[in-house]
Amino acid sequence: MSVLSDLFAVARGDSQADRAVPPTGFTARLTLFSSGAMAFLAVFAMALSLATGRLAERWSSELARSATVRISAPAGQVEAQTQAAVRVLQTTPGVAQVRVLEDAEQRALLEPWFGPDLPVDSLPIPQMIDVIEDSNGYDGEGLRLRLQAEAPGAVLDDHTRWRKPLVRAAGRLRALGLASVVLIALTTGAMITLAANAALAANAQVIRVLRLVGARDVYIARAFVRRFTIRALLGAAVGTLLGMIAIALLPSASVEGGFLTGLGFQGSHWLLPLLIPLLAAVVAFWATRIAAFRTLKEQT
Amino acid sequence: MCKKGTLVIELSDVSYSYGGGELLSHLNLTLARGSFHFLTGPSGAGKTTLLKLCYGDLHPTAGRITLFGDNVRDMGRDDIARLRRRVGVVHQDCQFLDHLSVAENVALPLSVSGRDVRDEASNLIDLLGWVGMSGQTESRPPELSGGERQRAALARAVIMDPDIIIADEPTGNVDWEMSLRLLSLLVELNKMGKTVLIATHDLNLIRSAKAQVAARVLRIRNRQIQLAGADL
Fold first, then answer.
1. B78-82 long-range contacts, CB within 8 A, separation 24+
2. Do A212 and B84 touch (CB under 8 A)?
3. Would the CB atoms of B91 and A212 count as touching at under 8 Å?
4. Model confidence over A95-112: pLDDT tens digits?
5. What is the pLDDT at residue B187?
6. Are strands A66-71 and A154-157 parallel, antiparallel or unpaired?
7. Domain-embedded: residue B91
C-alpha cells in the first residue's frame, strides 16, 4: 500500500516536498547520463535479441523445408545419375519441387569464395539438385536408400547437420540479447543507487532538519525517489530515442550484408523500445526507494 | 491536546550512555502542561542530550520516557515523527535549510505534515510579524543575523501550535537585548499555555525570567538532575 501511494506521489508530484531537497548537480547529471547511456545500449540489445529471434525462426522454418542432393560421380556419369536422381525425387511422396541447378547458379554460389571468373566446366564440381518438401515431408532414410540404388553418387543433405547448430546459436544470441537487457537494467539500478546514496549523504543536514520538524521517513524518501525517477525517465527517453534513430540509420537488410544488416526492428517491434524509459523509471524508483529507506534507518 | 496539569513529559529512572561512558544516570523528571523550566549546568554536562531524549531524538539506554502519556520506546519511527509536530524545537544553531527562504523554512513543519502552506498563509504572516520578521520573509537564512535566525527558528517551532517548546541555548549567539526579546516571546508562549523547557548556561537570563514567570530551574550535575537553589 505504501509503495502504491509512493507511486501515486511520484506521478502526482509535491512541489513543497520537492523544494525541501536542494538540487544536486552532480547526482542529477550522473543519473541522466547513466540512464541515457544504458537505454541507448538497451535498444541495441533489444534489437539484437529480436533480430536473432527472427533469424532463428527463418533458418528453422525455411531450411527445414529444403534439402539438397549432391551428385558426385565420374565426369561421364554425372548427367545420367542426375536424371536418375531427379526421377527418384519426383516419384517420392512428400517432395513438392525438384530443380537441377544451372551452371550459372552453381557459379554464383561459389563466387563469394573463389571469385567471378571460376571455370566451372573444368572443375570437378558436383551437380546440385534443390529439393523442396511439401507440408507432409518425406521419409529421409527411405529416400537415401532409393537414391543409393538408382544413383550411387547421389548424397542427400537435408541441412540438419548445420541447421541445428545455427538455430541453436541464433537462440543463444537471442538469450544473450535478453540477458544484456537484464544486465543493463541491473547496472542502471546499481548506478542510480550509488547516485542516490551520494545525494542522501550530501543532504544529511537537510534530512536532520526535516526530521526535526516532524517529517516521516516516507516524506523524505519521496522527495528523493521522485527526483531520481524523473531523471531516469528523462535520461532513458533521450537514450532510447537516440538508440532508435541509430538503429533506423543502419543499412537495410540485404543478401550481401547477411546477418548484421538485419539488426533492427520490424513492424510493431518498433514500439518495444518505448518500454525502456518506463523500465528505467521503475528501476530508479525501486533503487532510490530502497537506498533512501536504508539510509534513513541507518541515520536514526 | 493535553489537559492543564497533566504531565507532558515524564522521565523515570532514565540513564543514557554513549561511547562506553554514562552521560546521564537514573534521572527522574516530570514536566506538567503549562510549566516553565530552565535546564542549566556546565558545558558537556548533558543538557542537549537530555533535551534530545525529551523530544525522542535519542532513546535512553535504561529507564522510561513518556511523552503525552505514551512510552517513547513503544513508538515506531512514524509515531516519533508525528510526536515532533507537538514539540517545537529551537536549536542554538537553528538548523535551517539554506536554499529556502525564511518563510519557507518557517512553514516547513506544515509542509511535512501534509498541510497546504497556501491555506496557512495568513497564519504564517501573523507569526512572522509576532517574532518581528515581517521584513525578512524572502531572505535566505545565511543572510540573517544571529537574533533574526533565533526568532525565525522560534516561529518555525510554534507554527504547528505545539504543546511543548524545547529550546537549546536559544540565546547563545545573540546579544543581551535580543536575549531578552527572545525570552519575552517564550514567556508569552508559556502564558498561552505552552510548556517551555530551555537549556541555558546564562544565569542572568534565568534571573530575568524568574521575575516574569514561575520558572523551575533544573541543574545537571554529576550525571544527575537537581532542583537549583535560591542562588538563582
1. B78/A216, B78/A217, B78/A218, B80/B56, B81/A211, B81/A214, B81/A215, B81/A216, B81/A217, B82/A214, B82/A216
2. yes
3. yes
4. 999 999 988 888 788 887
5. 94
6. antiparallel
7. no
Question: Among B161, B191, B209, which residue terminates a domain?
Answer: B161
DSSP 3-state of A124: coil
Measured between CB atoms, which of B95, B100, B109 is closest to A214? B109
Residues near A124 by beta carbon (within 8 Å), at least 6 away in sequence? A75
Distance CA A233, CA A240 (A): 10
- Over residues A196-245, the pLDDT tens digits come to 999 999 888 899 999 989 999 989 998 899 999 999 999 999 999 999 99
Question: pLDDT tens digits for A9-22?
Answer: 777 777 777 788 88
For residues B2 and B82, state if they share a domain. yes
| B111-124: average pLDDT | 85
Task: Tell me, yes or no, if A219 comes closer than 8 A to chain B by beta carbon.
Answer: yes
Asked if A45 and A179 touch (Cβ cutoff 8 Å), the reply is no
Predicted TM-score (pTM) of the model is: 0.74
Q: Is any Cβ of chain A less than 8 angstroms from the Cβ of B141?
A: no
Q: How far apart are CA A147 and CA A128, in angstroms?
A: 14
Question: Quick one: B150 and B174 in the same domain?
Answer: no
Q: What is the pLDDT of residue B2?
A: 46
Q: Establish if B75 touches chain A: CB-CB under 8 angstroms.
A: no
Q: Which candidate, A27, A31, A38, places its Cα nearest to that of A230? A: A31
Backbone angles phi and psi of A14, in degrees to 5: -145, 100
Cβ pair B109:A19 closer than 8 A: no
- State how far residue B117 is from chain A, nearest Cα, in angstroms: 8
| Position B75 in a domain | yes
Number of structural domains chain B divides into: 2
